[in-house]
Every structure is written in structure tokens, then in C-alpha cells.
Design brief:
single chain, alpha+beta, PH-domain like, three-stranded antiparallel β-sheet, 4 helices, 22% strand, elongated
Length: 163
């Protein structure tokens, strides 16, 4: 039970969410790896020993647990643009809130690998002089990633010019 204000949810902050496509992407990767283990255990059961049918339960339980965890993890991602900084939060069990002042940003990077492009999502990475304050926002639609990149770069340039 917590008392007092929630440090991971500051007052007056309107959080933007990542795309649900991120959960679909992560679940597809989970099914690919977990499905491979299920097929391997079935092949061992057929060709080696029927006892390997018991090994089917391990990847199946892992798939079921992973499916739910992925949904909760993706729902926990959020970002908020404020006047002087960007907030990025993530995590369910181990929560994390990163506050990046616009004047401290060195550059903003947008990335999308082949799987991310197939699921129509991209990642935005903010880099600062301190590696501990870098922030990553995965699972953004490409248009939103480009908009956020341009907006953060212009805000960072404006804050830097004021120094």
C-alpha cells in the first residue's frame, strides 16, 4: 500500500501511449520462439521417447505467461511532453520514470528493424551526455515517431540556444 503522491505518475501529466502493434509484434516473436520449442519437444516425443510429451508443458506454460506479461508491459509504456522536459515511463513490477530536459538532449534517433516495419512501428531513442538518462520509446507509429523526433529536436535546439 502506498501513501502520498505516486512518483511514477506526476500530477497534471497527460500520458501518450504506444501502439497496440507493439504487443502484436512481441507476441509474434514469442510465438515464433515458443512454437519452435513445442515443435522440438513433439519431434523428440515421436522419434525418441513418448516421455517428451511431458516436455510440451514447459513451453506451453511459458507461452501463456508471456502472452499476458507482454500485454501488461506494453500497456505500461507512456510518454509525455511537458514545457521543459520529456517524461518516459515503463514497467509493471519494476517501474521506471525517466525525465529528460530538452536542453540536455544531444540527438534523437528513430529506428525500425524489419520486424518493426512489418508491424508498422518504430522506436524513438533520446540520447544525452549521460547514458543513464537516455530514454527509449518503442512501438510508435512511424508518423508519430517522425513527428516526435522533429518536435524534440526543435525543442532541444531552442533550449540549447538559450544557454
Amino acid at each position: 500500500m502506498t501513501t502520498g503522491p505516486d512518483v511514477f505518475d506526476p500530477d497534471g501529466v497527460e500520458w501518450s501511449r504506444v501502439s497496440p502493434q507493439l504487443a502484436r509484434l512481441r507476441r509474434a516473436v514469442l510465438l515464433g520462439t515458443g512454437g519452435g520449442l513445442v515443435v522440438a519437444a513433439a519431434a523428440l516425443a515421436v522419434f525418441v521417447s513418448p516421455l517428451f510429451w511431458l516436455a510440451e508443458f514447459v513451453p506451453l506454460v511459458g507461452l501463456a505467461a508471456g502472452w499476458g506479461i507482454i500485454g501488461r508491459q506494453v500497456a505500461a509504456y507512456g510518454y509525455a511532453e511537458r514545457a521543459d522536459d520529456l517524461l518516459v515511463r515503463r514497467g509493471v513490477m519494476f517501474r521506471n520514470l525517466v525525465v529528460v530536459p530538452y536542453g540536455r538532449m544531444q540527438f534523437v534517433d528513430v529506428q525500425a528493424g524489419p520486424l518493426e516495419r512489418a508491424f508498422d512501428v518504430a522506436r524513438v531513442q533520446l540520447h544525452t551526455a549521460s547514458a543513464g538518462t537516455d530514454a527509449l520509446i518503442p512501438g510508435l507509429p512511424p508518423e508519430e515517431a517522425a513527428r516526435l523526433r522533429d518536435r524534440l529536436a526543435s525543442r532541444g535546439q531552442a533550449r540549447l540556444a538559450g544557454l
